[in-house]
Design brief:
This protein has helices spanning 12-25, 35-59, 63-85, 89-96, 101-106, 113-120, 127-148, 152-160, 164-189, 194-201. It is mainly alpha-helical. It has one domain. α2 (35-59) packs antiparallel against α3 and α2 runs antiparallel to α9.
């Protein structure tokens, strides 16, 4: 059965080139040193770390691991946006505290991804971003949950092996979410025109980004 898994054919070097380019565009100090801004930036970086893991796992043909880390990548991105726009001061302080038994317990009441998205949907200025996030959630959330919890999707693809097209979809989706994370970091730098620079940088990378529907 393990022989059914093989490395997927995808352009990992091309993805790294895109992400290095995006990183260079946002490589500036944050616009302030508040706990809220620093927390949002930290969560965006967490999302990018999950993205790096997703790329490696997809490149090795490991669909289950790639799918599980993709879900974590998505949740970290949502939490980054939520921390900046909707988290209360108390929630920001709890998530920014040093890790110990007390702070771990205190952070348990932080909203889940669905609740965060609902809160973010109330903000007109996030309309375009929410379209992308909600589209991803609508198409991917249930199967990704199944992978995380060893449900029917995990069982099926463990038995039958990972098809290259599905691995490519996970790979592209992860790269698309990584772009959104860089957008979030760009906003936190406060630099004018950073969003247009980020969009322009993706122009020649359609082969590794989500396909237009």
């Amino acid at each position: 059965m393990l022989g059914a898994f093989g490395a997927a054919s995808m352009d990992l070097d091309r993805a790294e080139k895109l992400l290095d380019t995006l990183a260079s565009i946002v490589d500036y100090p944050l616009f302030d040193e508040s706990l809220r801004v620093k927390l949002s930036a930290t969560l965006a970086i967490s999302s990018l770390q999950f993205a790096a893991a997703t790329r490696v796992l997809c490149g090795e043909g490991l669909l289950l691991g790639g799918s599980a880390t993709l879900r974590s990548q998505f949740e970290a991105l949502i939490r980054s946006v939520w921390a900046l726009h909707q988290a209360t001061e108390g929630q920001v302080e709890r998530l920014s505290a040093d890790l110990n038994k007390e702070t771990q317990q205190a952070s348990k009441n932080i909203p889940l991804a669905n609740e965060m998205l609902t809160e973010l949907e109330k903000l007109p200025q996030l309309k375009n971003l929410l379209v992308a996030l909600c589209e991803f959630k609508g198409s991917s959330w249930l199967p990704l949950n199944s992978f995380v919890h060893s449900g029917i999707h995990a069982i099926h693809w463990t038995k039958h092996g990972a098809p290259p097209q599905l691995l490519d979809n996970i790979f592209r989706a992860s790269n698309g979410l990584a772009f959104l994370a860089f957008q979030s970091i760009g906003i936190l730098t406060g630099r004018p025109h950073v969003q247009s620079e980020l969009f322009a940088a993706t122009a020649s990378f359609s082969s590794i980004l989500p396909k237009h529907r």
